[in-house]
Amino acid sequence: MNIILLGPPGAGKGTQARRLEETRGMTQLSTGDMLREARTSGTEMGKIVAEVMDRGDLVTDEIVIGLIEEKLESGTGGGAIFDGFPRTLAQADALGNLLERHGQKLDAVIEMRVDDEALVTRIAGRSTCAECGEVYHDVTKPIPEDGKCSNCGGTEFKRRADDNEESLKQRLLEYYKKTSPLTGYYHAKGDLVGVDGMADIDAVAAEIDAILDKR
Ligand code: AP5
Ligand code: ZN
């Protein structure tokens, strides 16, 4: 099964994708994570990517489509959860073609709907485990009291360079301008299902599970 988690920055895409990896053995394909890895590589491409991400702009279609293509070539056991991809109509077309070429299809596009105000609070309180990438929130999912990651026991946590007010504003503008038209695109294909992303993490998870169980 292949699904897309579609939603603005902070909607909870990464949180739900990681859970689906654990519970359903699917593979999370997060272009954000891939790009963050690229920027630590010190290559020319990595430097360009870092600047674009820190501004809150979108990286070029060519780069992200290339990253996804590489992952699909190497196989996605248990099916793919596309997290943060596609983000433009050109990326959506490219994904359709790539899946077709690999004899696969899309089973659902899950749109996670969250108010802008809540997104700001979520991004401001987010931290991730430096070791395994588990996502925490100062209020809704605090780091355990013993200071150890509940998933891997790691003790180092970091905040993202683009999780500041200015970049977030730009990320939201980019989302509404370039990514939100994808809801119409996938609705027309009959693939779009909306979930209430304002609910708590477990309730959102239950809603997503109910959708996937029917596919
Ligand atoms: P990316 O890494 O994809 O970031 P994003 O889309 O901005 O999304 P986030 O990772 O910020 O949020 P999320 O929805 O995963 O939320 P999370 O689960 O962490 O992209 C970063 C940048 O890379 C882009 O700006 C762009 O430059 C570039 N890029 C990436 N993909 C690209 C592409 N395809 N094309 C071009 N450029 C691309 O949750 C957020 C917080 O809320 C956490 O603290 C979490 O604990 C908490 N939380 C989660 N769910 C809930 C809930 N239900 N209730 C309360 N709190 C919750
Ligand atoms: Zn961890």
TrEMBL record:
A cellular component annotation (GO) from this entry: cytoplasm
Binding-site positions, ATP: G10, A11, G12, K13, G14, T15, R126, V135, Y136, A199
Family from the record: Belongs to the adenylate kinase family.
Record protein name field: Adenylate kinase
Pfam families membership: ADK, ADK_lid
Organism classification: Bacteria, Pseudomonadati, Pseudomonadota, Alphaproteobacteria, Rhodobacterales
GO biological process: AMP salvage
Protein's UniProt keywords contain ATP-binding: yes
Predominant cellular place of this UniProt entry's protein: cytoplasm
Chain sites annotated for binding AMP: T31, R36, D57, L58, V59, G84, F85, P86, R87, Q91, R160, R171
Subunit structure: Monomer.
Gene: adk
